[in-house]
Specification:
By secondary structure, the chain is mainly α. It has seven helices and two strands. The chain has two domains: 3-75, Winged helix-like DNA-binding domain superfamily/Winged helix DNA-binding domain (Arc Repressor Mutant, subunit A); 83-188. A hairpin with a 7-residue loop joins strand 1 (39-45) and strand 2 (53-58).
């Protein structure tokens, strides 16, 4: 494939849900892969007045590196630092009504994502592709389903009053935050 074709396929497959993909970044990545011998030029062609398109193929060395990298990623959990749990850890800084509104917004977006994943699953099932090609969709569906269920339960808990933070805790947190800011400001002016 040529890089633009790779990008089009990634967008069509919705791979942008798995990794950030931008055309410019992809072109640079393809050049790096070629320079390191992991892919090679297969040919160059031109259609009409369009620019030349260089087509690439993976090398044996590229297949080996791909296999090693995928094996490493599958076999070893790593800390990925997702932002949602961090936001939850700081949600106590917001009013319960605001947290409720924000979680409902997230829930709505997740339901759209869930429907898109289901649509993708129907498409690949209709193509009679082996499960190995789309097991990531099963994973995404399972994690989205779990997050939807968790947010629904959290919204019920907030409505039941479990999110209330006692005034003395809010005051202590504000004082600690002010002290930290003051300390940080003093350190930065030295």
């Amino acid at each position: 494939m040529h890089p633009y074709e790779m990008f089009q396929l990634a967008v069509q497959r919705r791979d942008n849900r798995l990794v950030k993909i931008k055309p410019g970044t992809l072109y640079h990545a393809v050049k790096r892969l070629e320079n390191t011998g992991l892919i090679r030029v297969l040919g160059t062609d031109r259609e009409g007045r369009r620019p030349e398109r260089t087509t690439y193929e993976i090398t044996d060395a590229g297949r080996l590196v791909l296999r090693e990298e995928v094996a490493e990623l599958l076999g070893r959990p790593v800390d990925e630092y997702p932002v949602f749990p961090f936001a939850l850890s700081e949600a106590h800084n917001l009013a319960p009504e605001e947290v409720t509104d924000l979680l409902r917004r997230r829930l709505s977006a997740l339901r759209v994502t869930h429907a898109e994943i289901d649509q993708g699953l129907r498409i690949v099932a209709g193509k009679d592709l082996p499960w190995a090609y789309w097991l990531h969709l099963d994973y995404l569906r399972a994690t989205t389903t779990a997050e939807v269920a968790w947010i629904e339960a959290a919204l019920d808990d907030i409505a039941a009053g479990r999110f209330a933070v006692p005034a003395e805790h809010r005051k202590a947190a504000r004082e600690e935050n002010l002290e930290h800011r003051h300390h940080t400001l003093n350190e930065s002016t030295r």
